[in-house]
Amino acid sequence: MTAGSLERIPAPALVLAAVVSVQFGGALAATLVPAVGAAGSVALRLTISAIVIAAVVRPRLRGRTRADWGTVILYAGSLAAMNLSFYESLTRLPIGVAVTIEFIGPLTLSAVLSRRLRDFVAVLAAAVGVLLISEALSTPWADLDHTGMFFALLAGVFWAAYIVTGGHTARRFEQLDGLAIALLLGAALLVPVGAFTAGSKLLEPEILAKGFGVAMLSSLIAYSLELVALRRISASVFGVLLSLEPAVAALAGLIVLDQTLGPVQLVGMALVVAASAIIMGSKQPKEPVVTD
């Protein structure tokens, strides 16, 4: 399916399809990270994605302005940092918990861009939900995995940056050229780190097979759908449409990893999803297209 054919599909449907794709890819990645580490997993994922999309899209590199390159470099950096931080959190937290904590990033972005009081209240409710799902209120402070929570929150910050820079990239680059270039840049950035930490394990057949699956689900398919959608919807609306991420992540964790969440954690997840629904229900002003 080409970017042109994707343009005929409603943008919300593209985002929701990307949500399902990326979370099941994330569950598969949770089986890959213990073998080659977070850096090795992200490097493998981005490299395979970059090779496939570059061969299909053949992005145009010449004739780009300095502003174009600045935009796509920021997008690539956000993309790489988001994935590296998230994979580090997966080594310490269940995927449903990691995604729910991470989701604070795009949810806060949506509230800030909307500038409505009810949306800030929704973010506060989401924060309570994150406290519940992380079990910070029921578990002794010393027993909490602070490092995992830190990486999940950091991934949320970079997720918000990915949404903003992805919107700018989608408007500056035709078709999927911006995504192809960003993946190539991200792979170039992380391959040395991944090779240093994982070594020859990255070339083992089983590792390559899992890496290919993660690359297709979490990078190539998901990012392509998101980039096309970002051409037609604002960053705030896009951030809210991701409200099903925690629930889909929990479902993927149950099916792929046999991970279950307790009643209190499920209540926390419901609060996050409900907060997103509140923001989605408010009429948001149309945001101007930024072309720098």
Automatic annotation (TrEMBL):
Principal cellular location given in the protein's record: membrane
Keyword Iron-sulfur (UniProt): no
GO cellular component entries: plasma membrane
Domain annotation EamA: ranges: 147-280
Stretches that traverse the bilayer: 39-57, 69-87, 93-113, 120-141, 147-164, 176-195, 207-225, 237-257, 263-281
Bilayer topology annotation: Multi-pass membrane protein
Pfam families, per database record: EamA
UniProt-annotated location(s): Cell membrane
Family recorded in the similarity comment: Belongs to the EamA transporter family.
UniProt xrefs under PANTHER family: EAMA DOMAIN-CONTAINING PROTEIN (PTHR42920:SF5), OS03G0707200 PROTEIN-RELATED (PTHR42920)
Name this polypeptide is given: Inner membrane transporter RhtA
Organism: Calidifontibacter indicus
